[in-house]
């Protein structure tokens, strides 16, 4: 039987991907006590990388969907860090979101809401978190969004 978190994700019509492997010289997560630091997860879905620049060739809604994909990858990394037991996740502490956007684009918070909303929909109060949403002139491989996270785990 799936744990309640994975069951809730399935109820939303979503699925966790496999935890993405690091693309360079870093580890996907580091645990220190009950704090888990998850490296930035780039926007990727079943069709591959989610590319685009907000304010140029991507709408806010598409950016929010890219951020949601990042959130699913973050949860996949938490599951991997917890040896497959996502039930050990106690809360989301902080998300830092980077949005590939033009200099005049100012809706970074609306884009990163795609990740924040998912965390709250899936985890309830444990999904509420501190957050930063910032613009980036470009992101790795031309992706639209990258998000890193800090989590409390058992």
UniProtKB/TrEMBL annotation:
Transmembrane domains' residue ranges: none
Chain ranges of the Endoribonuclease L-PSP/chorismate mutase-like domain: 6-142
Q: Which Pfam family would be a valid example here?
A: YjgF_endoribonc
Question: InterPro entries from the xrefs?
Answer: Endoribo_LPSP/chorism_mut-like (IPR013813), RutC-like_sf (IPR035959)
Organism in which the protein naturally occurs: Marinovum algicola
What name is this protein filed under? Enamine deaminase RidA, house cleaning of reactive enamine intermediates, YjgF/YER057c/UK114 family
Q: Which PANTHER family does the UniProt entry name for this protein? A: ENDORIBONUCLEASE L-PSP_CHORISMATE MUTASE-LIKE DOMAIN-CONTAINING PROTEIN, ENDORIBONUCLEASE-RELATED
